[in-house]
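Internal QA ticket QA-208
Title: Verify multi-chain structure generation after dependency bump
Assignee: T.L.

Test input:
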Amino acid sequence: SQQGEEDPQALSIQEGENATMNCSYKTSINNLQWYRQNSGRGLVHLILIRSNEREKHSGRLRVTLDTSKKSSSLLITASRAADTASYFCAPAGNMLTFGGGTRLMVKP
Amino acid sequence: DGGITQSPKYLFRKEGQNVTLSCEQNLNHDAMYWYRQDPGQGLRLIYYSQIVNDFQKGDIAEGYSVSREKKESFPLTVTSAQKNPTAFYLCASSPTGVGSYNEQFFGPGTRLTVL
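Actual output:
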C-alpha cells in the first residue's frame, strides 16, 4: 500500500516553537501532499511536493521529500495556537491515500 | 462562491434504516470521492467517480452505494447492510481523474450516528 504513516501520532508544543511531523510510505509516488484538519471539519490542502523535488516552502511550512527513503517531513516554524489541528500526509500514485495523521497541539 | 457542500451536518439513524448523504460541488471537477473517518483515525476510501455515470469501489465499499447522474452531485447511501455506520463522512472532489495526482477539495463532512 502507498498509504502514508505519520509520526508522531501526537505532538504538543508551546507557541513559538517549531513542529516537525514525519511521513513514511511504501510504494513509488508521483507526488506527496500534506493536508490539515481542524477538529470536526473537512481537510484542507496545504502543500504538494513532486517526486523530483526535494524541498518546498510555503509561508511557515517547509516540506522535504526523500524518495530513496520513501519519507517526507513537514516543518511548521514559529507555531501558533491556531496551528492546532491534525496533519495528514497523502502519497499520490494512482490514488491519494491518507494515514492516521499527527495531532498537533500548540499551547499558548 | 465556489466549493463543495455536504448535508446534513449531523444525521441520526435508527438501526435497519437506509440514509443518503448529499454531496454537491460547483467547482466543475470531474472526480469525486467519499471517505469514512473514525475517531482519531485517518480517511478510508469508500467509493470514487471519475466521470458521470461511472464509479468504482474503494477499500471499504461494502454496505454503501453511490450514484453519479450529474457532474455536480455524488450522493452516498449508507444501507442497513453496513454493520457499523457511525462515523464522520467526508466528500471530496478533484479537477481531473484519479490518475492525475491533483489536490482534493473537501466538504465540511457529515457526522452520522446510529441510535
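Spot checks passed. The longest strand of chain B covers residues 43-51.
Status: verified.
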